Write the structure tokens for this entry.
Amino acid sequence: MTSWASAFSHQFVQVNILTNPSGLGGQLSMTIHESARLIVEGESNFDDAWNFGGGAGFFAPVNSVLDIKGDIIARSQKNDRYDNTIGKFGVELNLGFRAWVAPQVEFAADVGRFMRDGKDYTIVNLIGRYHPTDLVSVNAEWRMKGENDGQFVLGVRFPF
């Protein structure tokens, strides 16, 4: 596992199971600098709806158990409200943190804005992640505010 000056690995592949609406998703994060990463992510409920994004982010250690982070992500979204062949495009900006709250337990939160069609939407996510080994972690995420308010996501992350 590559470790920069950060308290966390920001280089991983993650697979997600979505609820309400249900679906599958995934994320790839690749470290390109000791404090920067590229992100590609996608989600779909396989009913001609999706949320795909790609962008860049930064991360910085505050101390040995806490990182701050931020991302800018270009998104294409398609669902029953945006029935366009290629979806609707927008930009997400977010800031957050990741913290070790116990030896194998991480807590993270993101707050941000998603801008599309001249409108801004608030994003608030809370994430708990358990790291049983260095090779895999499991997480539960509550997307409190955003495109799908109150959505829960279960995920498995594989650092590399």
User: Anything to note?
Assistant: Residues 12-159 form a domain with the Porin fold (CATH 2.40.160.40). The first strand starts at residue 12 and ends at 18.
